């Protein structure tokens, strides 16, 4: 099945095609490090995968349009469960088993929102899942589906809903993005064209969780659409030893992968003897899902140069669940980093300068429109002006599940005024701020996270990077900066994780807080209300690893972090 044929296809049709065309070729391989430190590989061919999917689909007591929650651990069972729900005519809801630490509340909220008719899990996870559900919902084990119900289901159409992708909830409660077969497969085509990858030879390698949009599209849907081999591993296995991911990349020449910025930092900091790795054959690693730090990219490229990894293999990208996942990707060249004048950026203009804010270009769209728009007037802005990122294309979701007002507000925007070459609408309002410079998109931050003090805009990730530079023991990517309402204006708080917080004396903690204040004042002209140093793990994150600034603000206001030593 070629890119040209994806326009009229469905995910189920893709599976049927590859099961018939290449039945004995490997479809998905899971490398299991839980019982074997060297990694035990368990795989399914396309024929075997289709058989597993059909068994799950036949066992699900559902009708077309019902929701099926996928609560499987990472692995081939997850793939079979997700595709089985879709093959049964239901709407899949990719989630996670209740054993994932720290996310029980989110799981309960999502299940309440989507109201699944059935749940897919595994035999091993079934007791915990049934205990969490408390009864009332049929549970099917993907590895032992049980007896068949009425099936096969009616053939799906491209405009039918394939699955609900729940947002990570970085600035609001999780919402289920409604994604059709057509939208998802359109995004696959956009990704392949944007990255310039050869779908005939590539292998995808991923540790990203399959319930996350980037992990699902990279690790499951793109290989399914194009007949590629997918090599998966558990996210925990990556956290335990990040070299495992790099080893798998080296084992599969032509492999491509994706990871958030923190993974690049984590690998550069944790991997020993990088020269023994074989990364010269890697096609590309997409860097997306969170703000990209140019210093982290430099460290990663330096650390793995001896292993054959070159900067042009890193492909900065921008995307979001509401657009399936990918919106823009960088060219096959070393990532473009531009320094913008900080004061000009604060007033909404991107002007290159010798010193200031360093931002990484996230490329250009493929097969979709991206506009920078004044969020108050809906007027498209010129290049060099900071505005809200709006997206229009066949990959955009149909709305939020059972949320008509929010859907209209987010997915139904229209431009006003003159906008040559751009459709009037409907547009997806991303809530992200960006600027187009030299033809590429740069991400400035989230509108809801923007810090406004005395009429000047400050981007929280910029303040966070400055705070983290005060001490090597402050964990990069684990700092939250946010505004709180003061007597006359907003004031700013910084909460930063410190690697050895328990060993800090009160005097040392006070001195470090003073240093953070001084650096932020010098760089941004901000007088911080509070600086709080906390142990590792105290800054909340979304399910995709982003800093949850709103949740951190709530904890601060509730007094969960105690009192600052210096005010």
UniProtKB/TrEMBL annotation:
Tell me which UniProt keywords the record has, alphabetically: Fatty acid metabolism, Ligase, Lipid metabolism
The highest taxon in the source lineage is Bacteria
Read off the InterPro entries from this record. Answer: AMP-bd_C (IPR025110), AMP-bd_C_sf (IPR045851), AMP-dep_synth/lig_dom (IPR000873), ANL_N_sf (IPR042099), FAAL/FAAC (IPR040097)
One of this protein's GO BP terms? Actinobacterium-type cell wall biogenesis
Q: Which GO terms describe its molecular function?
A: adenylyltransferase activity; ligase activity
Where is it found, in Gene Ontology cellular component terms? Answer: plasma membrane
Q: Which residues form the AMP-binding enzyme C-terminal domain?
A: 449-560
The AMP-dependent synthetase/ligase domain, residue ranges: 15-401
Q: Which Pfam families match?
A: AMP-binding, AMP-dom_DIP2-like
Query: Is Cytoplasm one of the keywords?
Result: no
Q: Which Gene3D superfamilies match?
A: 3.30.300.30, N-terminal domain of ligase-like
Homology family = Belongs to the ATP-dependent AMP-binding enzyme family.
User: Know the name of this protein?
Assistant: Acyl-CoA synthetase (AMP-forming)/AMP-acid ligase II
